[in-house]
Amino acid sequence: MNTLGYVLLSIISIRPYTGYELVQIMAAASWKANHSQIYPLLSKLEQQEMLSFEYVEQIGKPNKKIYSITEKGEEALKDWIVSESPDPIIRDEFMMKIYAMKLIDTNTAKSLIEKRLAIFEEKVTSREATLQAIEKNHQETLKDITSKQFGRYIFFKRKHQMEKEEISWCKWVLSLIDDYSKTKD
Amino acid sequence: MNTLGYVLLSIISIRPYTGYELVQIMAAASWKANHSQIYPLLSKLEQQEMLSFEYVEQIGKPNKKIYSITEKGEEALKDWIVSESPDPIIRDEFMMKIYAMKLIDTNTAKSLIEKRLAIFEEKVTSREATLQAIEKNHQETLKDITSKQFGRYIFFKRKHQMEKEEISWCKWVLSLIDDYSKTKD
DNA sequence: TTTGTATATATCAATATTTACATATGTTTA
DNA sequence: TAAACATATGTAAATATTGATATATACAAA
């Protein structure tokens, strides 16, 4: 099995999901995976008996397959969890553009960073809504590190923290740009 | 040209580099790219006249090609910089394992997080060495946002901040684990 | 003395990921 | 009222990425 397969098992271990939902969960986790990758992989995992699915017929909406983890899947997942984790891969085009910032003029640079700031402010808003929902619905179990929600909760907390830091970094860079502009007057 | 091509142009826009050095720079930027990807791409960029290289013969070491950006490369790079940036992709296996943390026992979880903490403490140490070197060698130009070092400097500052935050998150999770362990006594 | 590491580049095969094509219905927006 | 969007799954082709093999020298460690 490949890494994405284990990642899907990890998410489904919390509760059953459809492929459609998994695409969105992966995107929210910044691990973008297209449905063209997710659907065939779920089929494969089902054939390998790591997952099972329930076919749900719907009216007014397309039918769906709700995947659950099997015992075999859980065992495979456990082995993966305790295995060595490679260094995280961060492919952030914006940050790589920053590297060559001196090539563009100050106003353009400023507006690029302002845009980044706005994007992350939106991310923080929606992340906070998710966190508040978890805190509201699972308040008693959040201190129970063996609860199903715990892992998901601390995961989102880390994402939230990261997004907040991006905002403060953007503001810091904007202040440097402003300081520089003043000395040029 | 593909995204990695632009990223290489971005780095080379600061100063000329060899393919070998670029592999290491990419790794330090968490954008891992193997030499099997870098070398053919540099050749292609040279053929497209985005880059030029100087062949340097060495004694006791293999010969090398030092790539510099051309005017054409710089124009292409500028266009890329002002284009829309897709959302960052973060493929962090450790964080996806955290999702399913409840499957493993408390002590195993604790040691996984301690290991993550140790890895990031090392990252911070080496990042701080890099930052101090930049601050020492370019102290006058660091406030000049049009200097070549500025982009690289604020890039590394962001990486440093991110790594520090990872450490504080690990410590927070460890404290939650300890609190839970106490309530279980 | 052999094995591993650092320096340096190159290519091939295997795998993973992205982009495009395909289908179908209900709701929302211009 | 037509176009876009959300729900839902699927496949095929193109592209990107990883892992392996290849070559060569110097140096350090086992």
Word description of this protein:
Two copies of one chain form a homodimer. Chain A is built from seven helices and four strands, in the order αβααββαβααα. Chain A has 185 residues and is mostly helical. Chain A has two domains: 3-82, Arc Repressor Mutant, subunit A; 93-184. Chain A has a three-stranded antiparallel β-sheet. In chain A, helix 6 runs antiparallel to helix 7. The model of chain A has no long low-confidence stretch (mean pLDDT 96). At the A-B interface, helix 1, helix 4, strand 4, helix 5 and helix 6 of A face helix 1, helix 4, strand 4, helix 5 and helix 6 of B. Strand 4 (89-91) of chain A pairs antiparallel with strand 4 of chain B, so a sheet runs across the interface. The structure holds a DNA duplex (30 and 30 nucleotides). Chains A, B: It holds the Pfam family PadR. Chains A, B: This is PadR family transcriptional regulator. Chains A, B: Residues 8-78 form the Transcription regulator PadR N-terminal domain. Chains A, B: Residues 90-177 form the Transcription regulator PadR C-terminal domain.
